[in-house]
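Re-run requested by the PI after the first attempt was lost when the workstation crashed. Everything re-entered from the original request form. Ligand of interest: nicotinamide-adenine-dinucleotide.
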Amino acid sequence: MPRPADPGFVHTFLPGRVVFGAGTLDRVADEVANLEVRRVLVMATNSARDAADVVEVQLGDRFAGRIDGVAQHVPTAVAEHARAKAREVDADGIIAIGGGSAIGLAKAVALTSADGLAIVAVPTTYAGSEMTPVWGETAGGSKTTGTDLRVLPRVVVYDPVLSLHLPKKVTAASVANAIAHCVEAVWTPKADPITEVTAVEGVRALAAGLNKVVTDPTDLDARSNLLYGACLAGSALATAGTGLHHKLCHLLGGTYNLPHAETHAAVLPQVVRVNAPAVPQAAAQLHAALGGVDSNAADASTPDLAGGLFDLFAAAGVPTSLRELGLTEEQAVEAVKTFKPTDNPIPVTEDLVREILTRAWAGTRP
Ligand SMILES: NC(=O)c1ccc[n+]([C@@H]2O[C@H](COP(=O)([O-])OP(=O)(O)OC[C@H]3O[C@@H](n4cnc5c(N)ncnc54)[C@H](O)[C@@H]3O)[C@@H](O)[C@H]2O)c1
């Protein structure tokens, strides 16, 4: 809540339309028609081939082509292939069905299209990329990211039915990724009261959903809660941006090709451990949201947000150490040397980054 003594804030709501609910896959073609898109290239992750088949039929004459199978972190070779395909079929729109990798590929094509391409995103994980104007592409072991409104999906269709069979481990890691967006959105220089309330509600929905799908992965209400949380997490990231935590994950992911979502689960509790004391009010609200407690009743004096996140991820079966992801301790330490300083609630020194990465490598509970 804004306090009278605060200097005020500026918040930009991003343009975009969200269609939410079980069965909304059937509305994708109508959404495309509303955008007056003529020729659609459908991109789908392998697990979403059936959904892509459905959409292909729905599109009728608007269907122009299809790319099945995407790669994590948008390798330039994969992006170039998709750009060539978009030109070949004269696409003016893309439907991306899948996780952050499918949506990231659509963004890479839209970014470089001379005439602009409308993206309709149908997310099947909780990465949240569909709500952001952030793009990324990886070449030569290094990931470049940027922000451009041309890549922001014009419509996002959230159909929880599509995520019913997301494996438990992928689910848990993806939720960790979404929670990381929420947590970091409370301490970046662009954080404001609107991103904070969005982030806290996002964590509440994500933690509640994760606790339920761990026992019943096909619980449709829980899957809905998770997609709702992912939507909030993505929009919090879109306006507040990212900081130390995401930059460390991108460095590790790009350099060592680590799985993106799992990297978040290992690194986030360690970054929160050092940053939370600098943002006690927000940390208390996030901590309360983890346990489904009313955040207004949060006790700012004892929030163990870092420990709470570590325990949530561990209980859900997602690795909480970089060691389990195949990184060696030498690689973790090597990454410290190439990390560039970033805005953060506490100064980012080489010693601080070493401490975070050493603990994240070992999976030490905060
Ligand atoms: N630009 C942004 O704002 C932003 C935000 C978050 C993540 N990202 C990017 O997104 C990528 C990671 O996305 P991700 O974590 O969603 O991974 P992903 O898209 O690679 O999907 C993870 C795995 O889950 C499978 N899968 C997806 N949906 C499924 C379903 N419903 N059922 C069964 N299996 C399914 C995929 O085939 C894949 O094997 C990274 O490249 C990351 O940098 C970008």
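Saved to the shared folder this time. The chain has a mean pLDDT of 94.
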